Amino acid sequence: MTFYDIASGPPVHPFAPNPWKARYALNFSKTSYRTTWVPLPDVAATRTKLGVPAVRKHADGSDFLTLPILHDPSSTTSSSSTTQQQERGTLVGDSFDIALHLHNEHSSSNYDGGEGGAHPPLFPPNTLALHRAFNAHVDTLFSLNGSAQLAGYYMTFDPATAEATKADMARRIGLSRWEDLELPPGSEQRKSTLAAFEAALGSGLAAWFVHRDEGPFLEGREPMYADMIVGGWLQMMRNCLPEWEEMRGWHGGLWGRLHDALEEWAQVL
Fold it and tell me: Which residues pair with 145 in a beta bridge?
């Protein structure tokens, strides 16, 4: 399988939350794949060339042509409107649908509670709708609480295309200059935004981890795709947030423990 991800750097490395969600799912499913790195300026053209429709919109209503995309040459099964069937396999163009595709097509049905080394399913029985709602909730929670200003401003760009990329991204979010996004480190505005972000995560997410005495995941000992949804955003924070070490310790160290526990499935292949 081929996994199309957004290249940051140099050096090239993944940083965006949605591709990270799918990468966790790929590694967790123990499927064989390779990454095709796509520079930010080429993302829209790549998605268009592959013929995968947009699943999101910009604020102005135009298509948001982004990644990830998974090409599975062994499958011709369509599980959603974001999945395209071709003679040479299936293209899936949404992180949630990639996880669902892997769950349906590449997961083992022989889970034995971990006794024989098998891992649990990405989606435990009867949790698909709950996972969809949780995914939307987590995306909104991070997006509306300063992730762009606190972390996104510090993304690393290819120097050869950095200025054009920053100008395009600023235009998309309604700013005249990329620099207007910055909340300077140490500023009172940044401190208050960080405090509000911590509080929002506390009431809107940390309180849902009710099995902390059993393990680092939402359900304690066993991971599921919901943990990877949060983990995708934590990867962005790790890569871009200057206060990442501080964030690791919020809410009794919950986010640091979850991030570390997911490292088992964080290989970049």
Answer: none
Fill in the amino acid letter for 172.
R
**Summary mean pLDDT of the chain:** 90
Total residue length of the chain:
269
Residue type, 155: M
Residue type at 156 in one-letter notation: T
Q: Do 212 and 261 form a contact (C-beta atoms < 8 A)? A: no
pTM value is 0.92
Helix count and strand count (H, E) for the chain: 10, 7
Distance CA 229, CA 139 (A): 8
Picking from 36, 32, 239, the residue whose alpha carbon sits closest to that of residue 147 is 239
Dihedral of alpha carbons 194, 197, 203, 205, sign? negative
Burial 203-233 (b: 16+ CB within 10 A, else e): ebbbeebeebeebbbbbeebbbbbbbbbbbb
Q: Would you state the structure tokens that stand for residue 54, as one six-digit string?
A: 């947009």
Q: Which of 124, 40, 34 is nearest to 70 (CA)?
A: 34
Helices (H), 94-187: 95-106, 128-143, 147-150, 162-172
pLDDT digits (tens, 9 = 90+) for 33-89: 999 999 988 999 999 999 999 998 877 788 889 999 999 998 765 545 455 555 579
From the list 231, 241, 256, the residue with the least C-alpha distance to 156 is: 241
